[in-house]
Amino acid sequence: MIKEYLHIDKILDLNKWKRLQDSLATVTKLAILTVDYKGIPVTSHSSCQSFCQSVRKDPELLPYCQKCDSRGGLEAVRLNAPYVYLCHFHIVDIAIPITIDGKYIGAVMAGQVKLADPWNATDLEQIATTKNESQHQIKLGELQAEYDELPVMSYEEVVKISNMLFLLCNYIVEEALNKNLLVEMFEKASGKDETVNLSSILPGYTIRNIESIKKEMTNAIADAYLNNSKAESQCSNPVLQPAFEYIHAHKSENISLKQMAELCHISPSYFSRLFAKETGENFSAYLARLKIQWAKQLLEVTDMPVSQISDELGFNESGYFIKIFKKFENITPALYRKYYKAN
């Protein structure tokens, strides 16, 4: 049921999410932390600045930091948009809500930067203010060197990055949810005599169109990682062009020669002759070689299990995929990945 998935740690592989979070922190220069809908961290901090680490270790100042986190998250939920604000040390922070169908499941807390142009951000709210200004000034003096090392960016940069993170995080979470729901649906559908009530799992979908949805998702996963130029799907014979375009656009399908011949409106025998003339090899050999090229890219740039790569590229079962891979590369997919990453 969809309610079971409204917990961020059940939707995402948090180990992979943390690696993405680390990369985003490096690229954006922001410190980033992910929390659940209760405000409880589900990841450790990525690139937490030393100044903020020191402040959070102070038992008298930590409550101010926690108040900023709590209030920032609440404002982001209320707005259903990134909320940019100032902490009690006038440092910029951002709360980015993660929602599914309007339901709040968590947030990405980012920031720990100073503004290069504070005059352009006079409308930013300082969420927490101290009742003991002298205490803050003393602490700031003690940590001045660390404060000076905080990253600096313009207000415009902060806003653009916060919007990008909002779109990216929610897109990734929704895609993960869709895939989890599909897995659940297929597991239920595999029961011997049980009738699956799809409306309780995927509202709006029926058993008739679920296979096409699954194919679209697997194609999207493969395409997200594979570097394919438009030229690779071009051929010199316009009669065969629909087949080449279909092959590159439907990487997760087990495509047959007959299917491609029908797509090109010619007989299978004529298609076979034209295809061999165009590529220098028969259809099955060409398709297998192309899929092994794609498989090598996925092994190089992702942590996908070999069995998942086999599924993403339309092989009937992983044993057959390993056999074909070894035929072309003289090595198994697992060893190929091991040697590639060792070099």
Automatic annotation (TrEMBL):
It comes from Paenibacillus lacisoli. Pfam families: HTH_18 (PF12833), PocR (PF10114). This is PocR ligand-binding domain-containing protein. InterPro entries: Homeodomain-like_sf, HTH_AraC, HTH_AraC-typ_CS, PocR_dom, Tscrpt_reg_AraC-type_HTH. Keywords: DNA-binding, Transcription, Transcription regulation. Residues 241-339 form the HTH araC/xylS-type domain. The keyword DNA-binding applies. PROSITE patterns: HTH_ARAC_FAMILY_1 (PS00041), HTH_ARAC_FAMILY_2 (PS01124).
